[in-house]
Amino acid sequence: MTSTGTFPQIQAPTTEERPTEDTRHGITRVDEFAWLRADNWQEVFRDPTTLEPSIRDHLNAENIYQTALMADTVELQKTLFQEMKGRIKEDDSSVPMKDGPYAYGSSFKKGGEQPRYFRTPRDGGPEEIILDGDLEAEGKAYFRIGGLDHSSDHDRLLWAFDDKGSEFFTLHVRDLTTGKDLADQIEDTGGGGVWNAGNDGFFYTRLDQNHRPSKIFFHALGTDPAEDRLIHEETDPGFFMNVAGSRRKDWIFIGINDHETSEYHLLSMADPMAKPLLVAKRQTGLQYDLEEGGDIFFILTNADGATDFKIMTAPVSDPVRANWKDLVPHEPGRLILSVLGFKDFMVRLERKDGLPRIVIRDRNSGEEHMIAFEEEAYSLGLSGSYEYDTDVIRFSYSSMTTPSQLFDYNLRTRERVLLKTQEVPSGHNHENYVTRRLMAPAHDGELVPISLIYHRDTPLDGSAPCLLYGYGSYGITIPASFNTNCLSLVDRGFVYAIAHVRGGKDKGYAWYEDGKREKKTNTFHDFITAARHLVAERYTSHDRIVAEGGSAGGMLMGSIANMAPEAFGGIIAEVPFVDVLTTMLDDTLPLTPPEWPEWGNPIASEAAYKTIAAYSPYDNVEAMHYPPILAVAGLTDPRVTYWEPAKWVARLRKLKTDSNPVLFRINMDAGHAGASGRFSRLEEIAYIYGFALKVTGKTAVEPTK
């Protein structure tokens, strides 16, 4: 593959080889770059300054190299940043959501990086700032606010922050009368908490040293956190755990799950000293979620072979599995995504024929009606309500050409009220753009959806560059929603496309199952199929396609680089999960045991070992031509550790047989999500887009459209 763009001939950093061997199931692998994994990685997550100097020197050398190779795009990056910033309403504010005597919302001040949280009187009035993110972030290289929960008496605010990027959150309690935080402070939490009924204490999740949410505690205000009562402990490292509350303030839900099995325990908010009630014991493959419904619970589940899920009910007095009854039956091809319960209504978000819709059910009559839209591809978001006894819910709508719209919807009268349309201060005329939904025939006859947007003036003769985005894991669906950032590419003649590959739930739960474990390679084939279909339909050509994906989507990037490097003109892998086999063999890492249901357990299973080894990007780098590749990572990332892309980049440079560069940019002050501020994150996107424009030869600073 020869890139259209040109890079200066600068010597890339050389990575010392220190071969180590690992033998499993009689198979020996040699890893010459394993030393890049810091032995004290847990300490580094908490204090990045403890990173071993030789590793730090190597990462700094990588940053110097990528900066030099991208030096000629600096002005372009500045222009891209200003364009993207210009599409953001700097002093934007949410529409407050009502809860009792107040309405709660968030806003940004002009030039602010972090959100401010406020409340007003229920029916309007002056704003009271209850948490100022910019103020809290002062002096910190990284800062991200976690969960917020105001007490039901509206006197206190439970809030959390992470100032390392490692996702160890510190919990604080703010007195909303004085605006000051109380002495109660708890470190190493999962990022949120839930008040009890008396508002004199809260439940929270504590992370262990391996970053696993292993314990749920109750903290009584004014007491020593060391004396907090242990509510529940999860001893299986393969399961995630979280705590949530009901809108009626009567139940605490303790949710335990991996990627295919779930379990719930219930606790009365009024009695934090009680023993939690087990609803249904975990059974491999059985998934269920609980939602409040007054004297019943609504249960979203795949029980009884309901692959695309159904809704059942159970009495609050005895919600065990034997008492579950069908309410909304299973319908193959209609994937029910979530359920919200209210006093007189039940609301569900579902996807059918690849598109989302909201369905409202009158709990008294059983009558149902639907909220749907007519565009070829669009996105719906269901916000619901803080309140249980209400007839009004909130939802959002957008498409790739239509800015986000926020609606209040009356469940009883079916009146839809537009509350807000996303403002694009620099201007946006949706008629300048075209959005399409294509179906690409895959290698096995399946049809892979592709959502795309392009400028109406872009020639569709194969000459247009294309950014093709993909993810394809954990059942996550990438919505066809409005993205102001990609307009900087589209206005420069790009086709921006999303490949809805297997591994997501875009076409139902079976679409997810057909892209995991032993069927994982379907994800990669689907993405390559999408690229080839775009070329066949004359939207672009192979040397003009830049592929992009992050995290598990970064693993997708590493895999397609090995499988079909000739199909792409460039590849962007953000926080890429590229050393899959090594990570799944290391059960000390934060996410490894919970990930085994998604990828397989190569420690216990030789078959799983061989399956993962056959596609793991790091293990399949070959002596062949690769297109230009950009890897982006964060030093304190607990999800995809920095050494995965560092090792991958080193092996690519060692083995590949072309002169195309491999760039590695690592944020030494951030984790999985990258820079924490809204504008500093735009600078990262401007850099990534600068790379895409450079490799496709479109380095003119100003847009062409």
Automatic annotation (TrEMBL):
It holds the Pfam family Peptidase_S9. Residues 15-25 have a biased composition (Basic and acidic residues). PROSITE patterns: PRO_ENDOPEP_SER. Residues 14-421 form the Peptidase S9A N-terminal domain. SUPFAM superfamilies: alpha/beta-Hydrolases, Peptidase/esterase 'gauge' domain. Belongs to the peptidase S9A family. Residues 481-698 form the Peptidase S9 prolyl oligopeptidase catalytic domain. It comes from the Bacteria. This is S9 family peptidase. Residues 1-12 have a biased composition (Polar residues). The keyword Transcription does not apply. Residues 1-25, 105-125 are annotated as: Disordered. The keyword Cell cycle does not apply. Keywords: Hydrolase, Protease, Serine protease. GO terms for biological process: proteolysis. One of its GO terms (molecular function) is serine-type endopeptidase activity.
